[in-house]
């Protein structure tokens, strides 16, 4: 345990605006499973959640960003800073840091929430970040250059004169700053849903897994494919795709011979032989989708899958737990399951599931 995280008083998590109750419920549930008592502080539409608890350092190590569904970024919380005067925001921060047993930091990130109330501080975050970095170096909290492998000091701006201090270890940080990938929409993509699958492949798989599992000539299917956003992504990775949908696909997808379009019901169609991949982004009741996805694994129709579950307006965390349980029960076998609400998701979550090789069991 580093001295930096030992000073933690809780966890601080960024989330999609409007999903603060879901992240709060997830923190509460996961902490209870680990035997850690605490309580969440969440304000609707703020884009972040605080979870205050006693054994925060240990909980932070076990509940990193990747292990949480609704957290884009989750770090150890050091202190709340309700008074950061405009004329001097740096001194109160340094005063708090001097009162802690700290080893120093390798980098600093001044951030804001991805919410209407947070994005207005983007400019302030950039300017304050430069000033804070210089002050930390001057007062011995950082070396002369950034060292990303060392702990990072975070300041979440919650207002023009308030913020929250936190710290993260290198292994706990998301692949993208604040968990937000800056992906550009390709003009050739049939729909914006292509960004969801692109982000899922970048976020839920490692680079080594992408190289191993997305090879030229592998076979996949896309259930509910029209107009073809997810089919297009798979095709660009070199896969041979069977697109299942009664609706039309963009004609350009059928030009190079890598895509076969079958007009069929995604809930009824099944392949004649096992496929490497099955993906699904159908607009349907999440429990029904989860059940069908589990049946694909139970029947040995695919080795791995990425699918979305559209969430209801209320009790969304409870619905997620219900759907994941239904999925695993329908599959009837141990699976490697990774779940995330991605930046390009809206009222939904994205699930990766894959067979576990014998050497991993």
TrEMBL record:
Q: State the superkingdom.
A: Bacteria
Could you tell me the keywords of this UniProt record?
Answer: Cytoplasm, Methyltransferase, rRNA processing, S-adenosyl-L-methionine, Transferase
Where is the catalytic site? 310 (proton acceptor)
> Where on this chain does S-adenosyl-L-methionine bind?
193, 226-229, 245, 265, 281
Q: Which reaction does it catalyse?
A: cytidine(2498) in 23S rRNA + S-adenosyl-L-methionine = 2'-O-methylcytidine(2498) in 23S rRNA + S-adenosyl-L-homocysteine + H(+)
Where would you find this protein in the cell? Answer: Cytoplasm
The EC category is: transferase
The Gene Ontology biological process annotation of the record reads: methylation
One Pfam family from the record: RLMM_N
Tell me the InterPro entries matching this sequence. Answer: RlmM_FDX, RlmM_THUMP-like, RNA_MeTrfase_FtsJ_dom, rRNA_MeTrfase_M, SAM-dependent_MTases_sf
Q: Provide the GO MF annotations for this entry.
A: methyltransferase activity
Looking up SUPFAM superfamilies in the UniProt record yields: S-adenosyl-L-methionine-dependent methyltransferases
State which Enzyme Commission number(s) the record gives.
Answer: 2.1.1.186
Domain Ribosomal RNA large subunit methyltransferase M THUMP-like, first and last residues per copy: 88-168
Q: What region holds the Ribosomal RNA methyltransferase FtsJ domain?
A: 191-283
Sequence ranges assigned to domain RlmM ferredoxin-like in this UniProt record: 11-75
Which family does the record assign?
Answer: Belongs to the class I-like SAM-binding methyltransferase superfamily. RNA methyltransferase RlmE family. RlmM subfamily.
Which PANTHER family does the UniProt entry name for this protein? RIBOSOMAL RNA LARGE SUBUNIT METHYLTRANSFERASE M (PTHR37524), RIBOSOMAL RNA METHYLTRANSFERASE FTSJ DOMAIN-CONTAINING PROTEIN (PTHR37524:SF2)
**How does this polypeptide assemble, per the annotation?**
Monomer.
What this chain does, per the entry, is described as: Catalyzes the 2'-O-methylation at nucleotide C2498 in 23S rRNA.
**Record-given protein name:** Ribosomal RNA large subunit methyltransferase M
Naturally occurring in which organism (per UniProt): Aquilutibacter rugosus
């Amino acid at each position: 345990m580093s001295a930096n995280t030992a000073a933690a008083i809780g966890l601080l998590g960024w989330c999609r605006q409007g999903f603060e109750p879901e992240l709060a419920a997830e923190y509460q549930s996961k902490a209870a499973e680990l035997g850690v008592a605490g309580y969440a502080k969440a304000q609707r539409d703020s884009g972040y959640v605080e979870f205050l608890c006693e054994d925060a350092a240990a909980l932070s190590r076990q509940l990193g960003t990747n292990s949480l569904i609704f957290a884009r970024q989750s770090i150890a919380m050091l202190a709340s800073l309700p008074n950061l005067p405009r004329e001097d925001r740096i001194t109160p921060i340094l005063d708090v840091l001097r009162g802690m047993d700290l080893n120093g930091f390798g980098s600093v990130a001044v951030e804001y929430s991805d919410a209407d109330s947070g994005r207005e501080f983007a400019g302030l975050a950039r300017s304050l970040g430069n000033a804070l970095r210089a002050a930390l170096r001057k007062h011995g909290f950082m070396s002369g250059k950034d060292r990303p492998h060392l702990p990072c000091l975070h300041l979440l701006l919650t207002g023009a004169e308030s913020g929250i201090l936190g710290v993260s270890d290198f292994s706990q940080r998301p692949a993208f700053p604040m968990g937000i990938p800056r992906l550009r929409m390709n003009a050739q993509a049939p729909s914006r849903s292509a960004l969801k699958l692109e982000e899922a492949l970048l976020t839920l798989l490692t680079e080594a897994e992408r190289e191993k599992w997305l090879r030229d000539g592998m076979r996949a299917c896309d259930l509910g494919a029209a107009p073809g956003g997810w089919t297009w992504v798979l095709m660009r990775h070199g896969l041979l795709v069977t697109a299942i949908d009664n609706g039309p696909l963009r004609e350009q997808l059928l030009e190079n011979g890598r895509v076969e379009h079958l007009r069929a019901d995604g809930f009824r169609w099944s392949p004649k032989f096992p496929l490497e991949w099955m993906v699904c982004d159908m607009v349907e009741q999440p429990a029904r989708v989860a059940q069908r996805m589990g049946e694909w694994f139970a029947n040995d129709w695919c080795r791995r899958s990425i699918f979305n579950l559209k969430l209801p307006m209320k009790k969304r965390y409870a619905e997620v737990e219900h759907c994941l349980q239904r999925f695993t029960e329908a599959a009837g076998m141990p699976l490697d399951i990774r779940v995330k609400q991605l930046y390009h998701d809206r009222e939904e979550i994205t699930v990766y599931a894959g067979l576990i090789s014998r050497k991993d069991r």
